Automatic annotation (TrEMBL):
Domain Caspase family p20: 305-383
SMART domains linked: IG, IGc2
PROSITE patterns named in the record: CASPASE_P20 (PS50208), IG_LIKE (PS50835)
Pfam families reported in the protein's UniProt record: Ig_2 (PF13895), Ig_3 (PF13927), MALT1_Ig (PF18703), Peptidase_C14 (PF00656)
GO molecular function terms attached to this record: cysteine-type endopeptidase activity
Protein name, per record: Mucosa-associated lymphoid tissue lymphoma translocation protein 1
GO biological processes: proteolysis
Domain (Ig-like): residue spans on this chain: 104-181, 206-280
Record-linked Gene3D superfamilies: 2.60.40.3360, 3.40.50.1460, Death Domain, Fas (1.10.533.10), Immunoglobulins (2.60.40.10)
Organism: Triplophysa tibetana
Top-level taxon in the UniProt lineage: Eukaryota
Amino acid sequence: MSDMNDSSININLLKESVLKRLCETLDKANNKGWRKLGEIVKNDKRFKMSMDDMDMCSLKVLEVDGSPSRVMLKHMGDQGCVLGDLMGFLQIMGHTDALQCLKPSGIQILVHPQSVAVSAGHNLRLSCCAVGSSHVHFQWFRKTEEVHHSCSPDLVFSPVQLKDAGFYICRVNCGNSCEFSHWAQVDVLDVPPRYGLVSLPSEGRPRVLIQPQAQRLLVGDSLFLECGAVGRPLPQYQWYRNGMPIKKATKRKYNVQCLTAEHQGRYRCEICCNDERTWSNEVDVIIDDFLINDQYYSLEKPYATDKVALLMGNLTYRNHPQLKAPMVDVYDLTNLLRQLNFKVVSLLDLTESEMRNAVEEFLSLLHKGVYGLLYYAGHGYENFGHSFMVPVDAPNPYHSSNCLCVQSILKLMQEKETGLNVFLLDMCRKRNFHDDVMPNVMLKVTANIVFGYATCQDAEAFELSSSGFTNGVFIKFLKGRLLEDEKITVLLDRVAEDMGQFDPTKGKQALEIRSSLSERRSLADSIHPGEYSHPGHDLLWIKAHELPESKVLDYDCGVQIKMDFAAEFSNVLVIYTSIVNKPEEMLSCQAHITNLPPELDVDPKLMNKETVEATGSFLLSGSLPQHCLYTRLGSIQKLRDELAFTVSLQVQFKSLDDMVEWNMDVNIGKPLTAKLDLNRPARKNSCQQTCLMPHSPSTSPSHSPACDRRFHSPSLCSPQHAASPYLNVCEPQFGAVGGHGYNLGVPMHGDHTYMCENVQSSPLTAQSIPIETTDDMEDMQNDFMSSLQFYNRPC
């Protein structure tokens, strides 16, 4: 906004309302109009005003709403004409009316109302602050109509309703002069009841409340997509189809009147608010050719009624070697699957009961036609064709009773009549000789199962030894392919080929694929909710990913602390605080989080750090604001009650030598997966329990099985153990492998930890078959196992 008291301002920077009044005055005048002004300017050597320029101005009278004066003034401003020059020209002309247009009004608007998007039912305030040479008066308008009883600087909606949406402006009067504020748009969202009253997010951070919906339409139908976010200032929208921006699709509602086959594709909307950007869900719009008996007909590929993924990464083991890669692997896979519209639950470091409860919650999200994906990274083993995932609290040695059987989970998924069951197991598949119990899991014969094993049977999966955080070998190559719209078995086969070209693991680790998939189902398939869909499934997932609202803490000393939250995983919360107001009499102040619940077991040395990396959270680096203090809370699922803590403010006043401290208690409820109470006792008898058949006692030594994500090389072992059937696992070696600069870590189990090599599994005897198994059940099981297509790559 220009200052009318500043005669040195370029006339192109004058307020639009001033220029409009001035141009109307000059356009209407005859002897003292724009032509006269042009003749005077022409005689001033500082500016050029040729006959061609005058002719160009005169042509504007032929246009609707064309203004010759506007063109002339812009031409003058482009040459450096300032307000003082223009007023001098008008004084020479004796044009008092034009000079009156440039006279300062004596009103200065300090704060203009700001456009905003808000949910219905929320309280809203639009503000205009102005000063004048005498007392100022305010009047609010909605478009051209006065808003009744709105003669104060604030226009308050308590609460705001759908009918209040529109454009607002405030007129400020001072004596005989008036000024208008900027226009402010109020966008009111009609959100579903499940959101309740949604408060405005902090400035610049839009929050999406209305998501576009997938649709199946016919050629010639109309398409309507809607996206809505609350935010201040008003969020800006841009619609995309198949990853490309759609021209002129910059409103939150997108319409196409007459659809053609070209309109089919994947749609999503980009929402921007200041420098913050977020995205809506991506949805599929399918255009069919015809409809017969209420059935759509096209050659469209299969689709899912929903897509749900459970990702578990165990790395901080209590009794076994710790790992690094699962954290990075789960994080990268989470971001990729979300781009494919999966509902993702990502969890780190789960105990046995927590893993069982997490799987139970995962199963509750499944129903008919859903694509279910389970990814696990951590220690594991395979006995009798059954895979076992090892919790972080597993004893040393561990048995099947301490672990989760993957095939048992598959059986429960089959009962949900899912459309696709995908298991990505990033773990070792060595035999566990401490566990001589044969599982008895009877699976149905279904043509929708895919297993992607990170390594071959009786082999190990690798981590790349590194000073930082890197992916495991499997995810290193999977993440480059996962977004491809290919049949999942084709995609995994390409990953296997990529892994086969990786020198550090060539001949040591190879991807193995087992599948009974008969249709061309892809992880990128579209979602079309079916009759079995239930809103409760979405609510359960939403509940597990709710972050606490931002908080502003007001201390009695005048300091204001802002507290925000971010989720690194579904059970890892990052709290970051910043000082937004510090009185001048203070030299410095710091706010530290203290008194966290003991079950979270947070190292005080990693709290209240100046960088998020210093807390151990390397994956959020660059995505959080700077100049904050960060605290990372892992294992949120262990919370027994609401998350309550103390924010201790320490202030150094200029006039005092000693620090002064204020404390404030904060309660943010149960964030993220803490709401699911995963730490409750697991119901082993009802969920994921494998039917077991006892065998003869194990005769192997009393040591932990070497079933870790590691590389074992006999050449690295001590020669004194060469004659033993159990080879000692030696200290880590960090030499480069394969000439590519990669190192394969060799984690140490302990001084008496061994690894069994080249042990052949003993054939199953009659005693191995559970007594309740009938010939028909055995035949059905054999038929199912035969139906699995076995893709084997040499280990």
